[in-house]
Every structure is written in C-alpha cells, then in structure tokens.
Design a protein that fits this description.
This protein is an alpha/beta fold. The chain has 13 helices and 5 strands. Helices cover about 45% and strands about 10% of the residues.
Length: about 325
C-alpha cells in the first residue's frame, strides 16, 4: 500500500488585525540605568530601530527593588513622564500592585526574615525575586488587560502569556545588555518562558558598549542617567562604597548593621558565615580601605566617576 508522508505543521501566522484587535507588543525591560536609557532613546527616536525591533506597540516595565538610589528614582519619574508624553505605557512594578511575593516585598524584607544579606558568594536570588518574578507576573496581567485574555486559567498562572503567544508568537522583551556582556545571557529558563517569551538584546546586536550607550543616548538628545543598582548591592566597588557613605551615611550604616546581625546570628554560627564581599572583611573594613585610597576625592568627583564608568553588576537573565 502507498506510504503517505507525515503531515507537516503549518507555520504560525499572526492573524490579520480586526478593527477591535490590538497590534503586537514589544516590551522594554527597563532598569533605569545607562543601557536602558540607550534602548529607550532608540525606541522613541530611531526609525530604523523601530522598524527592526518594534513591529507593533511598545510598553516599558520596571520592577522595584525598594532600594534604588535617589538619583535612579528621580530619573525613573522623569522617564515615566516622557513616556506619557509619547503615549507609551510605563509601568513601575511596586509591591502594592501585588506582583512581589510576601517574602520579597523589598530586599530588606528577606534580610529581616532570615537574618541574612546578599553576598558576592551567594546566588543572585535578589534579581530573580525582585526583578524577574514580578516583571513577568506584571507582564501577564498587562497582556490580559490589553488583549482581553484571562490572566489565569485553572492552575495555569501565566494564561495571558500563553494566549498571546498562540495569537502573535512569543512576546518580545528587550533587555539592556551591552557589547562585552554576552556572558550575562543565560539559557532561557524552563517553563513558561520557553514557550511565551523571546528575549532580545539589541545593544549586543549593534555592538554598543557602555561607553557607546553613553555617547549614543546623548547624541539622540536624551538624558544619560547614573548607573542603576541597589544601594546595598554587593557588587559595589570601593568608590561606590565611599560615595554611599558620603552621600547617604544612614543607608551605609543600616547596611553595615544588617551585616553584623547576620554575622552574629546564632543560626549562622559554625557555618561559612560570609560577609557582603565574601572575603571575611566587613563593610566597615572595606570602607576604611576605600577611604585610605580614595578619601581625597570629593562627592562631585565620586559622582563623576560613577557616572562615567558604570557599575560591576554581572547578574544574568
């Protein structure tokens, strides 16, 4: 009898838009730092970039850690106002919206609960719990609202993401890693992301380094912000520790107290009870060393150096 070839799957095609149907959405994962600023400038001003990366509409989402630097908070507010002027949705994902878990409302929520801190030798749980987790929960809710999908169907808590992917293909999420940061690109996590999300790294595609982002953002007429990471980020180098102590001594003192609480907590005795830097030297000892080396610099010089050189965060997504 004749052998018939197995049927082939037809390629998925985005349906033609009905009058009431929304166009596809590209999402900028906004960290309010210099790489994000470059991406935002390109999204708003560069026609060739828009044609390549934004086939429909744009939305900007930023998840709060509850401990951004004041400069970052102020820049985020200015960016939200700019997006409103351009009719681009900007969502600041704060704990009151319900997308953060109870144990990770802020960085300090976890520290108080478990008498712990973030350390260079610990997994980057803060980025997963305060950024990625809330981000994709909020994105699911946004898609549900925008397209009329159910946010949850039975036990499927990312139902809107799955529905969007079925209609339009995986939602495109732009991430601000620059040239030279390719090592930060991690494999797509198993689960919903493999089927519903396509991560884009335009700055790497374009060969833009951190310096290139600074120059490019300014050339397009946009603000070049301070680098953005938490006030109590273990990746802070000596200059950043000194700057934090000089500009916000109460914040540095609180961080140091959290470290002391962990080091003296009964639950951690007899373990490898690591400091923030993971080298058995406390924050106060690192501050002393930074003061000896860079104490001659004033606050304006420390601001300039932070602004121009970026930060050393190597968290991968």
């Amino acid at each position: 009898m004749p052998v018939h070839p197995a049927p082939t799957r037809k390629p998925h095609l985005t349906p033609l838009l009905r009058l009431s149907q929304k166009p596809p959405l590209t999402v900028l994962s906004f960290g309010a730092g210099q790489d994000s600023a470059m991406l935002l400038a390109l999204c708003l001003e560069d026609r060739a970039f828009q044609k390549q990366y934004i086939p429909g509409d744009l939305a900007v989402l930023m998840s709060s850690t509850g401990l951004e630097h004041p400069e970052t908070d102020a820049y985020r507010e200015r960016t939200a106002a700019l997006c409103a002027e351009r009719n681009v949705p900007f969502l600041h994902i704060t704990p009151d919206l319900g997308f953060h878990t109870p144990s990770w409302q802020t960085l300090h929520t976890q520290w108080i609960k478990n008498q712990t801190i973030q350390s260079l030798v610990f997994p980057r749980t803060c980025s997963i719990s305060l950024k990625l987790g809330p981000f994709y929960k909020a994105l699911n809710a946004l898609l549900a609202q925008r397209y009329g999908y159910p946010a949850q169907r039975g036990r499927v808590t990312r139902a809107a993401l799955y529905a969007y992917a079925q209609d339009y293909g995986p939602v495109q999420v732009m991430i601000g890693f620059g040239k030279g940061e390719e090592r930060r690109i991690k494999p797509t996590p198993s689960g919903f992301m493999t089927q519903t999300v396509e991560r884009l790294f335009p700055l790497i595609d374009m060969g833009l380094t951190r310096a290139g982002c600074q120059a490019g953002t300014a050339a397009l007429g946009f603000e070049v912000p301070m680098p953005s990471n938490c006030q109590h980020c273990p990746f802070h180098g000596p200059l950043d520790l000194l700057r934090l102590h000089r500009k916000h001594p109460e914040s540095f003192a609180l961080w140091s107290q959290f470290e002391r609480t962990k080091l003296t907590a009964e639950k951690w005795q007899g373990t490898r009870n690591h400091t923030v830097k993971g080298d058995d030297r406390t924050l106060d000892q690192h501050l002393d060393a930074a003061t000896r080396e860079f104490g001659h610099l004033d606050v304006a010089e420390l601001d300039f150096l932070r602004h121009t050189r970026g930060h050393g965060n190597t968290t991968g997504f």
